[in-house]
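quick one before i forget lol
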Amino acid sequence: MIEFHKIWIDQCEAARDIREGFGLEKVIGYLIGEKSLNFLEASDRYPEFAAELPRFVEEIKQIFEPGEIQSYLNGVRRVGALGHTASDEAYEEMRAAGAIPGDAVEWAEQILRLERARALLLS
């Protein structure tokens, strides 16, 4: 049986490969800007995810230097999969075409999760 609350282990392993192939910007967007925020959201709903959160955070800290984390968090413009896969131009085109919902509540929730990630990753 798949233990979804331990998926962070595979994501961290993938991050190491992504870094080698695509560089820091892509991998940090993938692991912090997408996967860790999704995990934070799940940890609010499911105790098994909440129990794994400290281990996930510690592994992220092993993958990235504190300065890399700080720099990413200070300059992040977008989160989620499009945060690290779409160029600014492509993102704006999709948003203008209505492919990306402009839900202010969801954006606020993402900002709060990002700030929570900041507190966990920089402590």
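fyi The CA atoms of residues 26 and 84 lie 6 Å apart.
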